[in-house]
Specification:
The protein is 69% helix and 0% strand. It has 403 residues and is an all-alpha fold.
Length: 403
């Protein structure tokens, strides 16, 4: 029984010793990795410290507990202090040091494009593109680098096909936000218009944006651009030098019986309305044209009901930006004030801004206008005409005083 107890105790002691050795080894390995000392230097410190401890525990029985033991201990402690002083200072002041330097953690690897941008500014487009592609080899999904490569291809090397290939590869990669992809496609469309003077390819790219993000605010922006896509002829003329056409003037203009109108007559409201309606039939989401049509209905034709209908279509649009909706409600209130709606109707229109966008800058602006609405109506009232009396004519030319 005693032998069995002894064997179990021995096993427990061995296991405890093994655990201590394992934990000590792990601690030493972590210490070795995180220390600023080189591994050979740190290992030398460990061995030298172990030697000092061995000397203390070996010599102590020989010298006893007298002054020699104290002198020996102080001497060895001073040697150990000099040896470990940098490490002790590092442990004590590391929190303060880390607060300024960020600690010992390795920074997150990121692409580096400043050299490529510097070469591009010096006109070295090919070298800049090579540097960007070298970074993209390490970070193939980096959005900034791919856009920079496409920009160099389009603006510096006039290679729109290469720029589109880069953008299309970017759009096929996972992990990019819809806003970034929409920005990339919109930029590509800008390059086709500004550099290539190619509205067809620009239209194709914007239609691709519509297909990728239907029924979003990004699609609304693309539809607005499609509605105002310039023609190839207009783009060609915009890049040519300005030509001033001098037409033959009217002969003997001073002898004409009727007043001569030198400026061309403005387009009639009927012509403008027909043009706006045709544009809206082709592009229903053209916000600017619908707003112009509403103003034309109200001011030129006196049809406030038709103007209200056009503005309501804009206000009820599902993807219209809040700032635009607030602008249209204020515009509707302007037309209602201008064309005879009562104060209660205008007040209900402005209160819709607060209902749609509570606790916002738009609501605060509408609230200020509501407070000043009575003054706004008062300023629109027609002033009463002051009737003057009948006085004697040419009073100042008479010699005598008036009787």
């Amino acid at each position: 029984m005693e032998a069995m107890e002894w064997s179990w105790k021995t096993v427990a002691d061995l296991l405890g010793l093994l655990a201590v050795l394992v934990l000590g080894g792990i601690a030493l390995v972590r210490w070795l990795k995180r220390s600023r000392d080189d591994p050979p230097v740190l290992i030398f410190k460990w061995l030298f410290t172990a030697l000092l401890l061995y000397v203390i525990f070996t010599v102590r029985p020989l010298v006893g507990s007298g002054p020699y033991l104290v002198l020996l201990t102080l001497t060895l402690a001073m040697i150990a202090g000099v040896l470990w002083a940098p490490n002790i200072a590092e442990v004590l002041f590391r929190p303060i040091w880390n607060a300024f330097t960020g600690g010992d953690e390795e920074p997150e690897p990121r692409p580096f494009y400043s050299i490529a941008r510097a070469k591009r500014k010096r006109g070295q487009a090919a070298a800049a593109l090579a540097d960007v592609r070298a970074q993209l080899a390490r970070f193939p999904n980096d959005f900034e680098g791919q856009m920079l490569a496409a920009e160099i291809l389009a603006e510096d090397m006039r290679d729109l096909e290469g720029a589109e290939l880069t953008i299309q590869r970017l759009c096929e990669q996972p992990g990019h936000t819809p806003q970034n992809l929409a920005y990339a496609l919109s930029t590509l469309a800008d390059w086709y218009l500004r550099i290539g003077q190619d509205p067809e390819n620009a239209r194709r790219v914007l239609e691709q944006l519509l297909e990728k993000f239907p029924d979003t605010d990004l699609a609304i922006t693309a539809r607005q651009r499609l509605a105002r896509m310039p023609t190839a002829e207009w783009l060609a003329e915009s890049h040519e030098p300005t030509r001033i056409v001098v037409r033959k003037g009217i002969e003997n203009i001073g002898l004409q019986r009727q007043p001569v109108q030198l400026t061309p007559p403005p387009e009639s409201p009927e012509t403008l309305a027909a043009r706006y309606v045709a544009q809206l039939e082709q592009h229903p989401d053209d916000f600017e044209t619908r707003e112009k049509l509403a103003l034309l209905y109200a001011d030129a034709f006196g049809r406030l009901d038709l103007a209200e209908d056009q503005l309501e279509q804009l206000i009820q649009h599902s993807n219209a930006p809040p700032a635009q909706v607030a602008h249209w409600l204020h515009l509707l209130a302007d037309l209602q004030v201008r064309h005879g709606r009562d104060e209660a109707t205008v007040r209900r229109t402005l209160e819709r801004v607060e209902e749609l966008f509570p606790n916002s800058a738009h609501a605060e602006q509408a609230r200020r206008r509501l407070n000043l609405l009575p003054l706004e109506f008062k300023s629109k009232q027609k002033r009463q005409a002051i009737k003057l009396g009948v006085y004697e004519q040419n009073l100042g030319l008479k010699r005598g005083l008036p009787g």
